[in-house]
C-alpha cells in the first residue's frame, strides 16, 4: 500500500506543512498588533489550533476512510458537496500560489537579486511537482528527512544568544491589552495554517487511529513552542520599533552571527531553509489535486495542471500592495475552509445522523 503512512510520519507531515516561510516574518507580523506580547498571542493561537484539531478528529472518526472533499459529499449530497469542493480547491490553489510568490520574493531579495522571478518559480515548482506526483509514503519520508533542518535553525539561534538581549523589551507582560493580544493571535494563526492536512492524511494512517489525537496534539504543541521561542528571542533582541522596520527579523537575527571562517550565516541558513519552505508548496499541491477527487490514475495529471496554475499565478506582477491584498483575501477564504466548513460538517453529521456506514444520499 504505497499511500499508507505511520503516525510518526503524520507528526512531521503536519509540522512541515505548517512551518516554512511564515516563520521568518512572523515576529514582524505579530508585533504590529500585539507589540511586546506577541509571544502570548502565539500561545493563544496554539490553543485555537488545538480546538480545531479536536473538531477534525471527531469528524474524521465518523468518516475514517474518507478525505475532506469526500466527506462534504457524504454529508451534503453530491451537488452541494461538489460546489463546496470548488471553494476548498480554490483555497488550496491560492494558498499554494501565495506561498510560492513569497518564496520567490524572499529569494530575490536575499540571495538572487538579479535572477528573474519566473526562473526561480520554474525551478521551485518543477521540484515540487516532481515530489507531489510521488505516492504519499514517498512524500512522508521526504518530510521526515527535511524536518532535521528544524534542528539547524534551533542550533543556529542558540549561537545568537551572546548578542545583547534586553528582557525589558517584553515587560510588563500583557501591557498591550487583551484586544491587541488577540489581534496578534490572528496573525499567528495564519502562520500556523497547514494543520488542515489532517483532513487528507487521516484515511491513510496504517496504525491504530486511537492514538492519532495524541500525535496531532504533540505536533501542535511542538509547533506552538517552536514559534513562541523564535518570537520571544526576537522580541528580547530587537525593540518593537526595530521589528516594525524588519520584514524577516529571524534572518536579521542570524545576520549578527559572524566567525573568522564563516560569515553571513543568514545567507547560508536561507540557502538551506529553501527546503522547508518548499514542503508547504508540495503539501498544497497535494491537497489541491486530491480536492478534485482525482483517482489514482489521474492524480499525476492534476498535479501537473495545478503546478502550471501556480506558475501562472507567480507571473502576475506582485508588488507589495498586490501581495498584501492577495494575502488578505486568501486569509478570509482560509478561515472558511479551515475553520468554518469542518465545524459545520461535524454539526450536520450529528444533526443528520450521518456517518460512513449510513446510506449515501
- List segments where confidence is low: pLDDT < 50 over at least 5 consecutive residues: none
Q: Approximately how much beta-strand content do the residues carry?
A: under 5%
Instruction: Tell me the overall shape.
Output: globular
The ordered H/E elements are HHHHHHHHHHHHHHHH
Mean pLDDT: 87
Instruction: Give the CATH topology.
Output: Amino acid/polyamine transporter I
The helicity comes to over 70%
Kindly give the count of domains: 1
Cα radius of gyration in angstroms: 20 Å
Q: At the first level of CATH, what is the class?
A: Mainly Alpha
**Gross CATH architecture:** Up-down Bundle
Instruction: Briefly note the structural class of the backbone.
Output: mainly alpha
Report the sheet with the most strands, covering strand number, pairing sense and barrel closure. none
The separation of the N and C termini measures 30 Å
- The H-level CATH homologous superfamily, spelled out, is Amino acid/polyamine transporter I
Number of strands: 0
SS element count, helices: 16
Amino acid at each position: 500500500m504505497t499511500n499508507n503512512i505511520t503516525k510518526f510520519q503524520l507528526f512531521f507531515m503536519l509540522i512541515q506543512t505548517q512551518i516554512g516561510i511564515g516563520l521568518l516574518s512572523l515576529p514582524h507580523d505579530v508585533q504590529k498588533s500585539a507589540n511586546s506580547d506577541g509571544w502570548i498571542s502565539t500561545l493563544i493561537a496554539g490553543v485555537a489550533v488545538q480546538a480545531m484539531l479536536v473538531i477534525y478528529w471527531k469528524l474524521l472518526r465518523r468518516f475514517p476512510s474518507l478525505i475532506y472533499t469526500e466527506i462534504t459529499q457524504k454529508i451534503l449530497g453530491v451537488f452541494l458537496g461538489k460546489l463546496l469542493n470548488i471553494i476548498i480547491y480554490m483555497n488550496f490553489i491560492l494558498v499554494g500560489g501565495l506561498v510560492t510568490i513569497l518564496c520567490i520574493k524572499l529569494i530575490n531579495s536575499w540571495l538572487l537579486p538579479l535572477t528573474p522571478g519566473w526562473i526561480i518559480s520554474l525551478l521551485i515548482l518543477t521540484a515540487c511537482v516532481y515530489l507531489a506526483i510521488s505516492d504519499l509514503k514517498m512524500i512522508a519520508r521526504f518530510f521526515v528527512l527535511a524536518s532535521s533542518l528544524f534542528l539547524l535553525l534551533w542550533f543556529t539561534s542558540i549561537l545568537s544568544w551572546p548578542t545583547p538581549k534586553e528582557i525589558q523589551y517584553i515587560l510588563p507582560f500583557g501591557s498591550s491589552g487583551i484586544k491587541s493580544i488577540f489581534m496578534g493571535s490572528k496573525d499567528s494563526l495564519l502562520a500556523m495554517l497547514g494543520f488542515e492536512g489532517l483532513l487528507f492524511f487521516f484515511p491513510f494512517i496504517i496504525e491504530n487511529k486511537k492514538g492519532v489525537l495524541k500525535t496531532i496534539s504533540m505536533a501542535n504543541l511542538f509547533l506552538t513552542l517552536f514559534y513562541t521561542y523564535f518570537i520571544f528571542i526576537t522580541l528580547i533582541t530587537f525593540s518593537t520599533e526595530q521589528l516594525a522596520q524588519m520584514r524577516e527579523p529571524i534572518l536579521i537575527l542570524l545576520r549578527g552571527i559572524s566567525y573568522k571562517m564563516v560569515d553571513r550565516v543568514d545567507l547560508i541558513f536561507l540557502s538551506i531553509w529553501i527546503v522547508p519552505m518548499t514542503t508547504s508548496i508540495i503539501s498544497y499541491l497535494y491537497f489541491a489535486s486530491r480536492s478534485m477527487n482525482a483517482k489514482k490514475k489521474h492524480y499525476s495529471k492534476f498535479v501537473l495542471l495545478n503546478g502550471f496554475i501556480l506558475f501562472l499565478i507567480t507571473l502576475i506582477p506582485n508588488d507589495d500592495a498586490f501581495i498584501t491584498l492577495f494575502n488578505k483575501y486568501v486569509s478570509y477564504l482560509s478561515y472558511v475552509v479551515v475553520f468554518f466548513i469542518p465545524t459545520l460538517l461535524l454539526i450536520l453529521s450529528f444533526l443528520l445522523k450521518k456517518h460512513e456506514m449510513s446510506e449515501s444520499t
